[in-house]
Amino acid sequence: AQSVAQPEDQVNVAEGNPLTVKCTYSVSGNPYLFWYVQYPNRGLQFLLKYITGDNLVKGSYGFEAEFNKSQTSFHLKKPSALVSDSALYFCAVRDKMSNFNKFYFGSGTKLNVKP
Amino acid sequence: DTAVSQTPKYLVTQMGNDKSIKCEQNLGHDTMYWYKQDSKKFLKIMFSYNNKELIINETVPNRFSPKSPDKAHLNLHINSLELGDSAVYFCASSPSPSGVYNEQFFGPGTRLTVL
Question: Between chains, do A45 and B42 touch, taking CB under 8 Å as contact?
Fold first, then answer.
């Protein structure tokens, strides 16, 4: 079965410090991986995606993610956190067995950035 | 301009009632989706339509019936509401049903509370 896992329910970081939100995947073959962010009472917003190519993917709002095939991971990172980055972050993988854009989402990680 | 809009934003109703949630997108996308986010923030796809045709139909009680009058609209009708239906329902759209480069655009969500 294809899935993603986000091992941390919550990540706390001080403003200005680097942040990492973890995601591991279980997919046969090469995965198509995505990160989304959900601000309170809002829908999900796309941040970045890995389809192929460079393992370091840059996205919106200064976020980046590193695809690591040997560790089956796709961790989200940012060099310097902002209080406004506080939100719920979802990792997602596209179902490769489907002909359509069917995604499996992780359980979400709440990021708290403290001033 | 709102890209993906949903109405109503909040819906409080009694068990056994029938209710509908409406979704509209003005992005010109061909494909639309319904997701359910439970109280633990777990997000799961329910349905997807491409150009008014149902393409993804997950294991969802048949009390849930999606309807797509045109490719810009996807409505969700729920019969005989149950307590377990309480959740936030998100509509989303993407340019095409299968392009792997296509991220999804989410609406703001409809919070359904069944009493």
Answer: no
